[in-house]
Amino acid sequence: AQITLQACIMKELEGESIDLLDLFFRSEKVFGVRISRENDFPDPEGKIDGLQTPLTPDAIENIRKNMPFLEIENYPVTKGTSFADIFTVEAYGRLIAQKLSVVWVTP
Fold first, then answer.
1. Strand partners, 54
2. Are 65 and 10 in contact (CB under 8 A)?
3. Beta bridge partners of 8
4. CA 19, CA 3: separation in Å to the nearest integer?
5. Phi and psi at residue 35, to the nearest 5°
6. pLDDT value, residue 30
7. How many CB atoms are closer than 10 A to CB 62?
8. What are phi and psi of 82, to 5 degrees?
9. Reported pTM
10. N or C, fewer C-beta in 10 Å, the chain?
11. Chain-centre distance of CA 102, in angstroms?
12. C-alpha triplet 74, 37, 79: angle, nearest 5°
C-alpha cells in the first residue's frame, strides 16, 4: 500500500496494535512526546470497544469531544466504521502537532 496522508494506519497499511505501540515509542524518542491511550485516546465511558469494533453514535461523539486531532467530521462514518478506519497518517501527524503545540498544515 502507498503511504499517503489519507491512508488508514491499521487497515490500508496493515498496522497492528504492536505497530502502534512501536510508533508511539518512536514518537517519544524522536519528538520527545509521550503518547498514551489514557491521555490521548480518552474513552472514560468505555464507548470504543477495540480498534476493529464498529463505532456507535456514543463512541463517535466521544471522539468528536475528546480526540479533535482525528477530525472525525472529515471522514465518512457509516455503519461498520471502526476506530481503525479513521486513524490515518494525517490523524497521527495532527496528534503529534497537538502534543508539540504547533499548528498542523496539510501539505
1. 82
2. no
3. 88
4. 15
5. -110, 130
6. 95
7. 21
8. -115, 170
9. 0.83
10. C
11. 18
12. 40
Segment 25-70, tens digit of pLDDT: 999 999 999 998 888 888 766 767 777 888 888 888 888 888 888 8
Cell reading at 61: 461523539
Q: What is the pLDDT of residue 26?
A: 94
Q: What angle do CA 45, 50, 62 make, to 5 degrees?
A: 35
| E strand residue ranges, the chain | none
Confidence at 4, pLDDT banded by 50, 70, 90? very high
User: Is the dihedral angle over the CA atoms 61, 68, 37, 21 positive or is it negative?
Assistant: positive
Instruction: Provide the 3-class DSSP secondary structure of residue 88.
Output: strand
Residue type, 102: V
Q: Kindly state the cell numbers that stand for 93.
A: 501527524
3-state secondary structure of 78: coil
